[in-house]
Amino acid sequence: MENIFSKEIKVNIGINEDCPCNSGKNYGDCCKNKNHEYMTLGKNHKGVNIVFNNSMNMETYDKISNFALENIFSLKEYEYITISKGEELIHNIYSMVDEGISQFETYAPCTKGCSRCCSLYLECTAIEAEAIRRHIKSTKTEEEIKEIEVYITTMKEKMETTKSPHDLEHTTLHDMYYNYLKEDTPCMFLKEDKSCGIYTTRPLRCRGFIVFTSSDKCSLTKEIVTPKLPPIYIGNLAIEHLSMKVGRYKSLTYVNENNEAKPIKRCLLQWFNKGLDSIDRTIE
Length: 284
Ligand code: SF4
Ligand code: SF4
Ligand SMILES: [Zn+2]
Hints:
The protein is mostly helical.
């Protein structure tokens, strides 16, 4: 497994320095006695040291791992779960991931309204797409649903040459991501004010979208590279297995180059290309 912590360096906080918990107090008068371990990922776009509480980070990592072991990995080979159960579990994982990455957010330039990343090819699993579909059906008006469906139809043509990532070699995959971005296909849930129309149910890929470089850089580069934060890494692993354990999606898998079974991931436009009555399970 790739070492996801390789770029992190341990730091010592002086007792007179600001406490990293953002309380506004000195470290010596605040969290010092908790004996937490702090680390840095280097400097962000403003030259500020990205210091984070690694004890908290590891706690989240363990919490998500244990949750996945108990509810997903412990299922026997022949045992599958319902969509509703999958939906419930996915929201549990989302909230643990959100909590885990919140300490990094203060270092990122990402703000509401900054949305170039919402035009990228953002893939998600079938259960995530289904959770979104159900959320839309139960919270949006008929008119809003119609609007989304019209948008899907408009974008369909653009999507026709776009393949699912599991179908492509690494080198072609890179081109596909870039071509998709060039086509300028903003997410169907991106609202006029550039906020997310399904914020509470947005897929993990969107939750993990955080950068420490300046937001200008996001509009200049071909691809936005996001740091591999442990809560996102383990959250992704849990969700991948969860999707494969939902009975309805058990056939939506493939074997990757490391001989591991993986769930097929596609962007939302591909999952919803037949409208919002069901997700498209007819993978060629
Ligand atoms: S990742 Fe880049 S484009 Fe997306 S919100 Fe953050 S700064 Fe903006
Ligand atoms: S689901 Fe929301 S956050 Fe994700 S790409 Fe769409 S608008 Fe952006
Ligand atoms: Zn503190």
